[in-house]
Amino acid sequence: AQSVAQPEDQVNVAEGNPLTVKCTYSVSGNPYLFWYVQYPNRGLQFLLKYITGDNLVKGSYGFEAEFNKSQTSFHLKKPSALVSDSALYFCAVRPRFSGGYNKLIFGAGTRLAVHP
Amino acid sequence: DGGITQSPKYLFRKEGQNVTLSCEQNLNHDAMYWYRQDPGQGLRLIYYSQIVNDFQKGDIAEGYSVSREKKESFPLTVTSAQKNPTAFYLCASSIGVTSTDTQYFGPGTRLTVL
């Protein structure tokens, strides 16, 4: 079965330190990869996506993600965390062949807590 | 959240009642989606629509119904047949259904069954 794993329920980081939120996937072929962020009682906001090309993708709010095909991973990173980055982060994968519609498979989410 | 509105923000329902959640978008997107979010789980797809007057079941469609009479509107009805409807419901849209199209989300509706 196709799946997305976010192995950490919560990540704690001190403000100013680099952060990494991990995502691995089990999807056949070469899927497209997405990161979204959710603030409390809000919808998901799109951060970035990997389609093809450079393995390092830059997105909104200073976030970037690194695609690693051999490890089937797409980890989200930021060089210097802000308290305002504290939120719930979702990794999502779109299989290249999914019956003709834009199907996204979501991970369970990782809560990022940035401490002052 | 810009461009996609959902109402109401909070909704309370008695057991046995049907309720309808509204989703409107002004992005001129062809495709629209409904997801359900439960604590500790990722989003699960309820229904999707690729074009007006057409919609398809997602992974957890039982107990839900939708319509797509206008391009900008995709209301979701939670029927009394849905056994555990308390959840956070998210509507999304995308330009089309091309594999690289990004889905954009509305602010969500929190439904609580009393």
How would you describe the overall organization of this protein?
The complex is a heterodimer of chains A (116) and B (114). Chain A is an all-beta fold and 116 residues long. Chain A has strands at residues 3-5, 10-14, 19-21, 24-26, 32-38, 44-50, 56-58, 64-68, 73-78, 87-94, 105-106, 110-115. In chain A, the strands form 3 sheets. In chain A, strands 2, 5, 6, 10, 11 and 12 form a 6-stranded mixed sheet that branches. Chain A has a 4-stranded antiparallel sheet with strand order 3-9-8-7, with no helix packed on it. Chain A is globular. The N and C termini of chain A lie far apart (41 Å). Chain B is mainly beta. Chain B has strands at residues 4-7, 10-13, 19-25, 31-37, 43-51, 54-57, 64-66, 76-78, 87-94, 104-105, 109-113. Chain B starts with a strand and ends with a strand. Chain A binds chain B through residues 4, 9, 32, 34, 36, 41-46, 49, 51, 90, 92, 94, 96, 98, 100-109, and chain B through 1, 4, 6, 9, 31, 33, 40-45, 48, 50, 56, 88, 90, 92, 94, 96-108, 110.
Cα-atom Rg of chain B, whole angstroms? 13 Å
The proportion of strand residues of chain A reads over 45%
Class from secondary-structure proportions of chain A: mainly beta
**Count of runs of 4 or more consecutive helical residues of chain B:** 0
Protein traits:
heterodimer; A: 116 residues; mainly beta; four-stranded antiparallel β-sheet; 12 strands; 50% strand; B: 114 residues; seven-stranded mixed β-sheet; 49% strand; globular
Short description:
Chain A is mainly β. Chain A contains no helices and twelve strands. In chain A, 0% of the residues lie in helices and 50% in strands.
Fold topology:
The complex is a heterodimer of chains A (116) and B (114).
Chain A: E1 3-5, E2 10-14, E3 19-21, E4 24-26, E5 32-38, E6 44-50, E7 56-58, E8 64-68, E9 73-78, E10 87-94, E11 105-106, E12 110-115
Chain B: E1 4-7, E2 10-13, E3 19-25, E4 31-37, E5 43-51, E6 54-57, E7 64-66, E8 76-78, E9 87-94, E10 104-105, E11 109-113
Parallel strand pairs in B: 2-11
Antiparallel strand pairs in B: 1-3, 3-8, 4-5, 4-9, 5-6, 7-8, 9-10, 9-11
